[in-house]
Amino acid sequence: MTKASDRSKKMRAMFGGVDPAELAKEPAPTQVGQSASKRVSAGAIKSMRNTFSNVEKENEELRHLLESGDVARELDPKRLEPSFVADRMVVEVDADFEALKQSIEANGQQVPILVRPHPSYDGHYQIAFGHRRWRACQELGRPVHGIIKQLTDEELLIAQGQENHERKNLSFIETALFAYRLSSDFPQTIISKALGKDATTVSKLLRLMGQLPAEFVRMIGPAPRIGRPRWEELASHFVDGSLPEGVHGPVHELMERPNYKAANSDDRFMMVFDLVGQLVRQISSSPTEAEVSKTTTATSSAGKLWIGDKKVLMKDKGTTLSFQVDTRKQPELAAFLKERLPALLEEFEEISEKEDAQ
């Protein structure tokens, strides 16, 4: 019997009434010939080691549960309710969840979930961790193996957060949203324990969610491949929880399109991210109202005006005023104006002197 199969059988034995003392016995290591090891690729060896490590980890968790006197029971999925604070986003297309469901259908539920007696309804239970396993069993129409423990709200949240951290980490935005949901009822010390993150990181998560509307985040989804920098860049475009005028409408329209709804959450994020960036750049490159007003005034001041049935062209540029006469078409007019201009200047000076004397 191989070490891997021994570990798997030990893990399954925990639900079959096997003496826990037997679990402490380690099988003798199997000798592997040098020629056989040469035929195994490095990638295959690494994969096998990871598999053994995961099985051993679950084995240790289950051994601990048995030693503490907690035994898995079969529970009716209909009598279970999720944690009072959601951590994961439920998405329509989730390949990992489908793989988990297929595994449970083929091999059974290898690892129990953790629940507590429901604080409000007798005979019902509230889940601390194992929501995905519960959902899978519920959809498969089979009972759920679960450990029942008395837990306070804080103990439930810490168990919930630690399980997520040790097994399949929440995406960055799921973690931020979870922290934000907790912040309405719990201090940051509890949030730090639940997330397994320091106070500085928790503060950054809460600050980010203070900029992004939760519904906006939900319409994008968990986006597991999108990290903190891009979420923070997207959040920087929000003012008081809203996108700028001229950006909100097109983004909302994008989120209603069939191709957007059919895309996975990573692609959804990039669709929104690219559109917001494009619209913001357009707005920043467009002149402001004040600039438009100033330009309009300058253009108006620099306007052209024909006088005397298009005989004289007056140009007013704001700082200079000029008159033009086409001497080829209007030679007499040009000569007349040239002759009368000195007299006009004298008349202007006389008027100015009288106004100054008054």
UniProtKB/TrEMBL annotation:
Q: Which domain of life is it from?
A: Bacteria
Which region ranges are annotated with the description Disordered?
A: 1-38
GO cellular component terms, A-Z: chromosome
- CDD domains for this protein: RepB_like_N
Q: Which GO terms describe its biological process?
A: chromosome segregation
Record-linked InterPro entries: Chromosome_partition/occlusion, ParB/RepB/Spo0J, ParB/Sulfiredoxin_sf, ParB_N, Plasmid_partition_RepB, Plasmid_RepB, RepB_N
Q: Which residues form the ParB-like N-terminal domain?
A: 73-165
One GO MF annotation is:
DNA binding
Gene3D superfamilies per the UniProt record, alphabetical: 1.10.10.2830, 3.90.1530.30
Family (UniProt): Belongs to the ParB family.
Q: State the name under which the record lists this protein.
A: Plasmid partitioning protein RepB
